[in-house]
Amino acid sequence: MKHSVALFAILLISLSLQAQTPVAVNGKLQVTGGKIVNSRGQAPQLRGLSFSWSLWQGRKYYNPGVVSWLADDFKASIIRAAMGVQPDGGYLQQPDEQTELVTQVVDEAIRTGIYVLIDWHDHHSNEHVAAAKDFFKQMAKKYTGKPNVIYEIWNEPEKVDWKTVKDYALQIIPVIRKYDQNNIIVVGSPHWDQDVDIAAADPITGFDNIAYSFHFYASDPNHQEGLRAKADKAIAMGLPLIITEWGVGEANGNGEFNLQKTQTWLKWVEDNKLSWANWNITDKHETTALLQRDAPVYGGWTEGNLTPAGIFIRNELRELNK
Fold this sequence. Notes:
Belongs to the glycosyl hydrolase 5 (cellulase A) family. Residues 1-19 form the signal peptide. GO terms for molecular function: hydrolase activity, hydrolyzing O-glycosyl compounds. This protein is of the alpha/beta class. The longest helix is centred in the N-terminal third of the chain and has 18 residues, at 2-19. It has a single domain (46-320), classed as TIM Barrel, CATH 3.20.20.80. The chain has helices at 2-19, 22-26, 64-72, 95-112, 129-143, 162-177, 190-193, 196-201, 225-236, 259-271, 308-320; strands spanning 30-32, 35-37, 47-51, 78-84, 115-121, 149-152, 185-187, 210-217, 241-247, 276-281. It contains 11 helices and 10 strands. Helix 3 packs parallel to helix 4 and helix 5 (129-143) packs parallel to helix 6. The protein starts with a helix and ends with a helix. The strands form 2 sheets. The chain has an 8-stranded parallel β-barrel with strand order 3-4-5-6-7-8-9-10, surrounded by 6 helices.
């Protein structure tokens, strides 16, 4: 009888957790022992989607309806607002408009109880330090105390060294920490967020809850065993990683969608219990786009509105996040 009561209690707890949102289940995230963990000290392994650049075609999907649809239908536990900084129409030219797009997405993520990356989507952030400081000051003041929010301060540094990336981070992190003492800050690494092993040899110190982004494109011939080896080395050295962007195609967003290579990458990700956001919510005609041309702007997508990548990722999320 006692055994049955115990099993029933475990079942009730399990059902209760399933009914709760990802943030209600995991609480405030932190970095401990080289890992991103939840409020219980366990790796939450969040899985979800990245919006496209908040420019061009992807801009129209930056609205609460899409966020709600991603949480309810795709079962995403994390999303990423990839705010374009440049060229035309980006934050440097339209700071108020771009900030409004991002906050619409972030506010709805908070309402629905999922995590959200606020991504300064710029390949040349070291050239825009003042603007980045201003933006993250606004975001940290607005969202301090919200466990949903993660700050990603430089998307994919290109042809710069780790010293440049680290120097930039050491200018932006104190701005955020002045207002938000605890939420995770994600730092990039050289070579489009691939050289995490170099960052692991000289990590940022003096601040808590700092993680590092790692990106890959699963079908790209240059993103296979050698790139996984870099990440394996960084993990072994105690560098906390989060995959803030990955795609089923190749590094240019197009090319082949190789199912076998994609499944190999996903197995590696699952084995390492890493959180991830798949690229990208747009109806642009490219391999990594999740939506067919002219998919409804506010969500409510049928399978016919999804590309092969969209169908695959939706199925993966609904299976893995159930």
